[in-house]
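Lab meeting, action items carried over

1. Structure of the two-component assembly. Owner: GW. Status: complete.
Input record:
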Amino acid sequence: MAQFNEKARAGHIHPISRAIFEIRAIFDELGFEVALGPEIEDEWHNFDALNIPKDHPARDMQDTFWLKRDANMRMHANGANKLVLRTHTSPVQIRYMEEKLKAGIQPPYRIIVPGKVFRNEATDATHEAQFFQVEGLFVDKKVSLAELKGVLSRFFKKYFGSDAEIRFRPSFFSFTEPSVEVDMRLRSLSNGMRRGKWLEMAGAGLVHPNVFKAVGLSGCAGFAFGIGIDRLIMVKYGIEDIRLFYNGDLRLVSQF
Amino acid sequence: MLVSYSWLQSYFKKKLPSPEKLADMLTFLAFEVEGIEEKKNDTIFNVKILPDRAHYALSHRGIARDLKAALGEEIVLSRRRVPESKKLAPLSVLIEDKKDCRRYIGRRVDGVVVGESPAWLTERLESIGQRSINNVVDAANFVMFDIGQPLHVFDGDKVESMKSKIDEKKIFIRRAMRGENIVSLDDRNIELNPEMLVIADAGGPLGIAGIKGGRRAVVGPETKNLILEAAHFNPAPLRRASERLGIRTDASKRFENEPSPELAAIAILEFSSLIAELCPGANFGDIVDEYPSPQIERIIVIQPEDISEKLGIALSAKEIADILQRLGIKVSSGKDKEFVLHIPPERLDLIIPEDIAEEVGRLIGYEKIPVALPSKPSSEFCIKKQFYWEWKIREFLANEGFSEVMTSSFSEKGVMAIEKPLAEDKAYLRTDLTHSTEEALCFNLTNLPLLGAPQVKIFEVGKIFPKQVEQTSLCIGIAQPKGYKGEKVNEQIRVVRDKIISMLGAPVSTACTVNDIGGIILFNGKPIGEINRIDGILELNLDPLIAALPDAKTWDISIPPAAIQTYKPLSLFPFIVRDIAFFSPPGVKLEDIQNCIKKNASLLARRVSLFDRFEKNGKTSLAFRIVFQADDRTLTDEEANAIMKKVSAALEKKFSAEIR
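Predicted assembly:
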């Protein structure tokens, strides 16, 4: 009966944070370190450097929150480089490589980047204007899709249990080539309705040479992936509404 | 894009796999099928075409070509009569700037009879959600959905002639002039500007290039003579114009994705053949083709081994060559086992060897790629300081009984404004966490009985945007219900403030009110946090603080395992609280009492908790609080009372409890 002994009552970690905690541990075993980046990004890091040119349909894949000009002007002397709320964690790939190269540190690089991202789309049970992603980047002399499969397969098995299977489907992201969509299937998920179905869980691929070009790196290969953290948790625990994560409701948090 | 199964079938002699199987095949070829619908004698797929392939695959033929490669079948093209050219009145084309328009093909057609389309054509178009308009317009649309090249057709007699030569028609492809207007087919007056490209005659704009035609030269039942158009426009300005005008059409969508300019020549022939079939009496003029810089064949040189290496699967050079040939890529050998690849003109997406790796990968099937793990690096890596200390704070606060919340990054007021916000109250980025913490405290306070907690203790770690920079903020909040017996919230905040400062070993000081309750937190003499500005809330800028802390050597954070396996959905209906207090005879186990209450309180009891206990005259007084809530309805007081009666009766009977 701990109820009225307040000292012993531990608080709860938010499920998103908890997932990040677990993700860190899994990738730590594979030699990936954590990198972070800003939530306000410039157009170059969020798009151009990731091989997403201006006036190109590829930009439509991400509904973007642009910041108003006056905010831009003051923050950046270079007014041409407009500011956005980052639409993905991928710009941290660029920032990390730039920083390492500046410090004279060549690959191999292995990072994961957990963080909040923003999409300008109407919200409903499966869409939020803000959500979390974890980015992964692996850069070395030679890197293959088989290694990407190996790393992601290991991750999903560790996070969901050994019955988790993954498959690759061809896809398109400007900053990877080849690009794949990663589906996962759980044979014995306890919350019933999703059992055995393939669920889209991540986007991934081999790093596009233009991305390396943008940071001035040559003679390298790499893979990158982006996993929606909210989705991981929703599938794992059977949460139906993404909006519950961001309304400060302890009825959700205290279940974790 | 909507894709018709029987339309695809028309490209193959052999029967295609069943619609379900074909849908799977398309998905694994890169065309995710998001929906399948049975329609008359057809099946319609809703296919997601991603931007890299949209230039060739927003068409049935483009998809059929990829299917051909996957199935190893040949494609058969239906043979229509290609009409001969005759000497008709002259047509000329003038492209003002070849950067805007890489190719423009025009052709006069005389003596058509505009009328209803034959059933097969109407059916084809209707199967993919298009309305039949008339045979000529339908023919243009059919060819667009068939091969991906948008087409346009003008009523030739409504196109103004040149003043000097009365029977010559001249088409101009030029930027709109300032102040120029066009009336659209749906009778809207559209203002144009010099950033927009128009198709014009001597009298002004006839259409907005690649986006929409105007009303002036529209083809109607009275039309006898036509001018056909198959063109290639620069996608970037077209896209900007389409965005600016808010007009997106099937044509503009395709032009934006830049189909090959080579396609225009094929399209004009197929368009002509179809019109010849629909209007047997029509006469076709010469093809006028302005194509100043033709597309050059692209060559990609690959080393087959590199492809195997990128995919991580052993493939022979022959296997790779076979796959590429099935895609219509001509493979010849270069030096040192190299392959020299001749890329078909419509595949503008194939530029570098990595693109070839994707083609090979998707055609052999990614499921064949084995699983490999990269070897672990030998070097030690560092722990990101910011990340570590944020977690140290989470760990500490959770141990102190605080629960972590996350709230919206958007707010009604602020400094950094969003260009197109989702809502008025989300027009800015938040400048603090205090506001949302205050709201969360308030909200959770109303649910305290459900949470089974005596007070609300929360925190958030997140980015705020108080000036033109973002910073990491920590906010801690406490709220209590009226009549709470413990320490006041401000006092508790003071305690946690001191604890967290000492835990971090952070070089900060406080400047506080006399009673040490409210005030600010200082770092190097600068304020970085506020204490109890609003009662029970502390907010602190973590960035300077963490910068001053040492790097972490090892990851030593631990959190308790998740309490649940499966999430219990929240009820949308209100809850009812009932208390019950009684004296229980000595020697009765608390656990047994609680089980008895739970057993009798029905499934509607969300929480049963002991909230008071004291001894009097050798008897133990216990007070339990029961919270009732249903998932599907609002509970009534009567229901709760009836359950409580049952609980009382059970306690009296089983433990001889004296209900107070």
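2. GW to write a short summary for the group page. Key points so far: Chain B touches chain A through 115 residues (CB under 8 Å). Chain B has 19 helices and 30 strands.
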